[in-house]
Design goal:
Shape: elongated
Number of helices: 12
Largest sheet: 6 strands, mixed
Number of strands: 27
Radius of gyration: 31 Å
Structural class: alpha/beta
Distance between the termini: 77 Å
């Protein structure tokens, strides 16, 4: 029950009204029934008058319109039989191109999408998936054919929808494009190849994130470069294994997380394409978090990762078999394109603080990178049972003073404190977080054999509550590092303290 409409020139207004109706009833005689749209009646496409010859050629060159004859309607806009010398003008002040097909249109929904996404096209006469029922007058009387309930779209169909839309909406000629890896990203690569072949896109270069994406892109004649020559990307497109409400992601089920992150962090826009099954309220339970680690002493690194405070309660499992699947399917350790191993962290409860976990994992010696992609997403294109929706990242509120203090307090311990040190612990609202972080890392076992010297009674009380071993200058006159806040800092790093 897909239709061709617009022979009378009113296709735009007809579609605008009819798409808003709960029920759309079509009334025809039996001569209008066909096995395939196209050969029996030209397809009208309403276009803007501006550079209309260019738009006519662009429409005729679309992959889905191959083999059609594109003819500008002349005379009356209400008839597709040219009956005058002047260009026909619609009620909306536009022109009409009639596409004459010799063979039936093989994929009307795809053609509808390609036409609608063409700059210069206002709309077209394909009315797909809109009809409620058709009332047919025939030689035997009147019959009614109702639209059948559509079977739910398959996972592959959903993936194709978002993959194609990501390229149609976010990729323009002249761009440097990052190409993701996986079964959803596959369709974005496919679409980019189509639009380069048709000439809709030009002067594109792309950076693939895996060997298999590189091979697919090469098969489609997509020009490829690397980050070594193009460190700045206009857009990167990739799938995800989980997406939380803040658009933080888990990625890496396909084993390409390191290259994906290296490419996608360099992009001005990072577009994520998923079906609605990938949305979650909290990362973790729905999909294991992959962590790429070095082969050297990998069992030690696996245990270290599992013991991190933020990873408490997870099961750390070394990936076996193919690196492109987190379902163990072999007896050999899975090896990534980079020659590394992957540990999959299985969580029973949602990850409470993904950014903190990301920092802890990245700061662990032996960890190359991890599948948490935090604060990177520009927009998520979601394919669902009700169609396609887009969720864009919200502008982040500025970090609070306490959040800023926590960041520098934690970083000071992460970057400057090592096992076996004597550490001076400062006093104040910023130094508080350094003490907190030191207590966390001693409790997890990341740091050992530390003794600390507090600089006030309240710092001493905080340190004791965290079981940090304390000494004084009477026994330890030499410290390895001291961490404290300041009230003022000048360009020469002289300080005012004591507030």
């Amino acid at each position: 029950l897909n239709l061709v409409k617009g022979g009378g020139g009113a296709l735009l207004r007809e579609k605008m009204v009819e798409v808003c109706a709960d029920k759309f009833i079509v009334i025809v005689d039996e001569s209008k029934l066909c096995e395939g749209l196209g050969p029996g009646f030209p397809l009208p496409v309403e276009i803007t008058p501006f550079c209309h010859e260019h738009t006519l050629r662009t429409v005729a060159a679309l992959p889905s319109c191959a083999g059609s004859d594109a003819i500008l309607r002349m005379g009356s806009s209400s008839s597709n039989v040219n009956d005058g010398d002047e260009i026909a003008v619609t009620d909306n002040g536009n022109y009409i191109v009639d596409l004459h097909f010799k063979e039936p249109i093989s994929d009307a929904p795809t053609m509808a999408t390609e036409l609608k996404n063409t700059v210069g096209v206002v709309d077209h006469g394909l009315f797909c998936d809109m009809t409620t029922a058709v009332i047919i007058a025939g030689s035997d009387g009147i019959s009614v054919k109702e639209a059948e309930a559509k079977a739910p779209l398959s996972q592959d169909e959903l993936k194709k929808m978002v993959g194609y839309k990501s390229v149609d909406d976010y990729v323009e000629s002249g761009m440097v494009v990052g190409l993701g890896t996986g079964s959803t990203a596959y369709y974005a690569v496919e679409r980019l190849g189509q639009k380069l072949k048709s000439g809709e896109l030009k002067d594109i270069v792309a950076i693939p994130t895996s060997v298999r994406t590189k091979e697919q892109a090469e098969s489609l004649d997509i020009p490829l470069v690397t980050l070594d020559t193009h460190s700045k990307l206009d857009v990167a497109i990739d799938g995800a294994d989980e997406v939380d409400p803040d658009l933080n992601l888990v990625k890496g089920g396909g084993g390409a997380l390191l290259r994906e992150k290296m490419v996608e962090v360099c992009a001005d826009k990072f577009i994520v394409i998923v079906d609605e099954s990938k949305l979650c309220e909290g990362l973790g339970p729905g999909f294991p978090l992959p962590v790429e680690i070095t082969p050297f002493c990998h069992e030690h690194t696996l245990r270290t990762v599992a013991a991190l405070p933020s990873c408490a309660g997870s099961d750390a499992i070394l990936r076996m078999g193919s690196s492109s699947s987190n379902v163990n399917d072999g007896d050999e350790i899975a090896v990534t394109d980079n020659g590394n191993y992957i540990v999959d962290l299985h969580f029973k409860e949602p990850i409470s603080d993904a950014p903190t976990m990301a920092t802890e994992l990245k700061n662990t010696v032996g960890v190359v990178d991890h599948g948490l992609f935090c604060d990177m997403t520009t927009a998520v294109i979601i394919a669902g049972s009700d169609g396609i929706s887009v969720k864009e990242a919200e502008a982040k509120a500025p970090l609070s003073q306490d959040e800023l203090k926590k960041m520098v307090g934690y970083k000071s311990v992460d970057d400057y404190v090592e096992s076996g040190m004597v550490v001076g612990l400062g006093t104040g609202s910023t130094a508080y977080y350094a003490v907190e972080r030191l207590g966390q890392k001693l409790k997890s076992g990341e740091l050992k054999d530390i003794v600390a010297i507090p600089t006030s009674v309240r710092t001493k009380e905080q340190a004791e509550s965290l079981d940090i071993p304390l000494v004084t200058l009477d026994t330890h006159s030499k410290l390895d590092v001291a961490i404290d806040g300041a009230d003022e800092v000048d360009p020469d790093l002289n300080l005012v303290k004591g507030g």
